[in-house]
Predict the structure.
Amino acid sequence: MRLAGGYVDLLAAEPEGGLAVVDFKTDAPPGAGADPAVTHPGYVEQVRLYARLLADLGLAEAGRVRAGLLFTAEGTIRWV
């Protein structure tokens, strides 16, 4: 077991019944077309962990939680 700490920046209920969890990042965003899983793997794992925890807590069904990173410099969500 490992103790983890962190904060969800945005959690939203989606119209079709799922959830969206988004973490805001002030780092430079990946280049156009770049995969955040390659350029920022730690951030991707962090937000995917949040999504898994929400499902494990029963707040949404597995597969019904979208995870995204919002790089504030570009203002768009990169779904991962």
